[in-house]
Design brief:
The protein is an alpha+beta fold. It has two domains: 83 residues, Arc Repressor Mutant, subunit A, CATH 1.10.10.10; 89 residues, Alpha-Beta Plaits, CATH 3.30.70.240. The chain is 49% helix and 22% strand. The strands form two sheets. It has a four-stranded antiparallel β-sheet, with no helix packed on it. A three-stranded antiparallel β-sheet has the order 1-3-2. Helix 1 packs across helix 4. It starts with a helix and ends with a helix.
Length: 180
């Protein structure tokens, strides 16, 4: 797939996930009328058939849940969709705090551990040590979505701190991101 096509699909995916959230009054559990949603997103910059096809794909992949009631179709983000949105957003707001996640996941759950670390990387975390990861971005506060989706709560600890004795090391690790 060409890079430009992939970027357009990524842009549309993020626009859909954000649109569902925005029209749902910022709550993840609110269903949104599909007609209203399509009109709002079509007015943005995407063709209706692209939107319909992508929404159908996101429903099939479990990122969006559809509901039909009284002849009206509604959609909302699933937890998996919330995670996808979190991984795709590029808002790297920094507030001077560090987010740490530490985990000790048994070897029998290796596949889940790999999914966790892949998602952590996508939202901006970097490994400080083997099972200790850090991130300066505010959006990382939503990491609990990933932990809950994977069912790893009893193996994971999450911290938000303002001061650490490894501050210099973290600043070097995130030097490119902190310069922006």
């Amino acid at each position: 797939m060409k890079k430009k096509t992939r970027e357009k699909i990524t842009d549309l995916t993020l626009a859909i996930l954000d649109g569902v959230l925005r029209l749902g009054d910022g709550t993840f559990n609110a269903f949104v009328d599909q007609r209203t949603f399509y009109k709002d997103l079509h007015d943005a910059e995407f063709a209706r058939n692209q939107i319909v096809d992508r929404v159908r794909n996101l429903i099939d992949r479990g990122y969006i849940e559809a509901e039909e009631e009284s002849g009206r179709s509604s959609i909302r983000l699933t937890r998996k969709g919330k995670i996808k949105r979190l991984e795709k957003i590029t808002d790297n707001e920094i507030d001077g705090k560090w987010r740490f996640i530490s985990f000790d996941i048994p070897e029998k759950l290796k596949a889940l551990r790999l999914r966790l670390t892949r998602s952590l990387r996508r939202i901006g975390f970097k490994p400080v040590q083997k099972s200790l990861w850090a991130c300066p971005f505010v959006k990382a506060d939503e990491v609990d979505l990933i932990v809950k989706e994977l069912g790893l709560g009893k193996y994971v600890a999450y911290f938000v701190i303002e001061k650490t004795d490894i501050q210099q090391h973290l600043e070097e690790l995130f030097s490119e991101e902190l310069e922006r």
